[in-house]
UniProtKB/TrEMBL annotation:
The KHA domain (rich in hydrophobic and acidic residues) present in the C-terminal part is likely to be important for tetramerization. Belongs to the potassium channel family. Plant (TC 1.A.1.4) subfamily. This is Potassium channel. The keyword Ion transport applies.
């Protein structure tokens, strides 16, 4: 058996969950962050015996159980002060059991590691833990709030004492309320629980405790007044001291709630001076409590409605802008529709959700959402998974409302789109109106013709209904293809196949396309001819896509599937020619000098042997040519 099999598992504090573990976020929310440059020894706590990590789930459950007992203590302490008869009954047994649990927690605290504020690391040394706990106020208060003074007095004297001294000593148990505060702080940061409900629960607890405590103290004032009839409850309930405990408690809570809510029916009111003073203090306290509750509730409500406020404000700004600049009604409606859709889909937008995440997580999310959509697009069918992964990692998802232009005719081609859902129309402005050429649906592409040919977008693309698209940058596509020749050839092949399948109406809007496809067929035919010698056979493996426009040889330092356009002339640059030949012919640059000579022969009807630039310099390498170069072939 290997060492890895025999060693004990690390404590929960240092255990690392996989990304698929649903408890991973809970572990992160309770992790300790060491200072920068501090080396963390993950086996430190593992080597220490009888040391409890403060974030061990078992210790957390123990603390949660104690909070339940704290709730009881918070109710029982004021109640037992006001109603002494309850102390001698069953509540004493419950108090002793509760105190026993908190006594056990005191002992347990001597074994709980603590966080060093200077290094933000856990200290697991028993001596340091004990010294820190004993020398702080917490130990003294924990002991004082746990000792059952009344029970100890009974054991020592054999008498049952119900005096006020023990009632006030029992109020020391309210020290335990700090555990409730710590619990709410932790729950507010725990994303498994609703922040709104956590804050609301905290406000309710504060209010209930204030009502309960004030009612009990007010009843205590009544039973200690020398004339029981001259009290707030004595004037309503005769001989109330000998009546039922729960009758007195009901009257007390009723008065406390009526006073807290400032209703003031007047049926229960202060009679003597002591009660009037207590009423004044309680009402001043109520002002602060009410302000605290209203402030918190306002904050919660405003926080939930802040997005609506920003949306209405943005819409008002759009309306003012459109009115000031005299924008047409149709354009104004598009602007409003886009703004409304932006706020409706804000929770689904990648940029806001993913901007603070590491790149690896963003890439994994994009792969999960869009990988299949990209693989189904015609341009990327048959390409490698690596290429798909690189493309998807940088994609941007967008929503477009109905009847909004995604692409405008004749705009500069910088991106093309894959339709994830929805439907769009491909339009062309002709004879003074928009004419529909085709309709696109899920997994179809838009804008790729302008990008691939590096020409202004030939068509307008407009949504028919709510549509989601992913946007691919022209520059990013070129970058990912620079070192991947096989995928470049496959994309070119898919693209040529798509161009050949275009409808007649679309081909009419692209007059250069028919001639270009014919040129591509000539080049591909020449490229696929059987070589006549061994050298040609060996070089064929490296030049099998040489004739494809825009795909250079594998030795080229850069790879681009975008065709390079040049203008060719069939004469010497210094030769005077007719007007028709002065213009030249615009072609897509083939992959080799020999293919360029063949293409020029087809255009001008004669075979050339020399290629010159406009300045007279001779062209020797095809890779040296750039977009819109003037070439003279003769």
């Amino acid at each position: 058996m290997s060492w890895s099999e025999t060693r004990s598992p690390p404590p929960l504090l240092f255990r690392r969950h996989s990304s698929g573990d649903p408890k991973n976020f809970a572990s992160v929310s309770s992790s300790l962050l060491p200072a920068f440059g501090t080396v963390v020894d993950e086996n430190h706590l593992q080597r220490k015996k009888y040391v409890i990590a403060p974030y061990d789930y078992r210790y957390r459950w123990w603390q949660t159980f104690l909070v339940v007992l704290v709730v009881y203590s918070a109710w029982a302490s004021p109640f037992e002060l006001a109603f002494k008869k309850a102390v001698t009954g069953s509540l004493m047994v419950v108090d002793l059991v509760v105190d026993a649990f908190f006594a056990a927690d005191i002992v347990l605290t001597f074994f709980v590691a603590y966080l060093d504020k200077s290094t933000y690391l856990l200290v697991a040394d028993h001596d340091k833990i004990a010294k820190r706990y004993v020398t702080r106020l917490w130990f003294t208060m924990d002991v004082a709030s746990t000792l059952p003074f009344q029970f100890i007095y009974r054991i020592l004297t054999g008498k049952m004492q119900t005096g006020d001294v023990f009632g006030f000593l029992n109020l020391l148990r309210l020290w335990r309320l700090r555990r409730v505060s710590e619990l709410f702080k932790r729950l507010e940061k725990d994303i498994r629980f609703s922040y709104f409900m956590t804050r609301l629960s905290k406000l309710i607890c504060v209010t209930l405790f204030a009502v309960h405590s004030a009612g009990c103290f007010y009843y205590w004032l009544a039973i200690h007044h020398h004339n029981s009839e001259n009290t707030w409850i004595g004037s309503q309930v005769h001989d109330f001291k000998h009546r039922s405990i729960w009758l007195g408690y009901t009257y007390s809570i009723y008065w406390s709630i009526v006073t807290l809510t400032t209703v003031g029916y007047g049926d229960l009111h202060a009679v003597n001076t002591g009660e009037k003073l207590f009423n004044m203090i309680y009402m001043l306290f109520n002002i602060s409590l009410t302000a605290y509750i209203i402030g918190n509730m306002t904050n919660l409500i405003v926080h939930s409605a802040v997005r609506t406020f920003f949306m209405r404000d943005a819409i008002n700004k759009i309306l003012r802008y459109a009115s000031k600049n005299g924008l047409p009604e149709g354009l104004k409606e598009q602007m409003l529709a886009h703004m409304q859709l932006k706020f409706k889909t804000a929770e689904l937008q990648q940029d806001e959700v993913l901007e603070d995440l590491p790149k690896a997580i963003r890439s994994s999310i994009s792969q999960h959402l869009f990988r299949e959509t990209v693989k189904n697009a015609y341009l990327f069918q048959g390409v490698s998974d690596d290429l798909i992964a690189q493309l998807v990692s940088e994609m941007k998802a967008e929503y477009f409302p109905p009847k909004v232009e995604i692409i405008l005719q004749n705009e500069i081609p910088t991106d093309f789109y894959i339709l994830v859902s929805g439907a769009v129309d491909v339009l062309v402005f002709k004879n003074g109106s928009d004419q529909t050429l085709s309709k696109l649906g899920s997994a179809d592409m838009a804008g790729e013709i302008g990008v691939m040919f590096n020409i202004p977008q030939p068509f307008t693309v407009r949504t028919k209904r709510l549509s989601q698209v992913v946007r691919i940058s022209h520059n990013h596509l070129k970058q990912v293809l620079q070192a991947d020749h096989e995928d470049g050839k496959k994309i070119i092949s898919n693209y040529i196949g798509y161009l050949k399948s275009l409808k007649h109406d679309m081909l009419e809007e692209l007059p250069f396309l028919t001639e270009l496809l014919s040129d591509m067929n000539i080049q591909l035919t020449a490229m696929n001819e059987e070589p006549q010698n061994p050298e040609a056979s060996n070089s064929q493996k490296d030049a099998d896509v040489t004739g494809v426009p825009g795909v250079p040889e594998p030795s080229s330092p850069s790879l681009s599937i975008m065709p390079i356009r040049v203008i060719i002339h069939g004469h010497h640059p210094d030769t005077t020619t007719t007007e028709g030949d002065t213009v030249g012919k615009l072609i897509h640059l083939p992959g080799s000098i020999d293919d360029l000579f063949k293409l020029a022969e087809k255009k001008f009807g004669k075979r050339g042997s020399t290629i010159l630039m406009a300045d007279g310099s001779q062209v020797e390498e095809i890779d040296a040519l750039r977009e819109n170069d003037q070439l003279y072939i003769f």
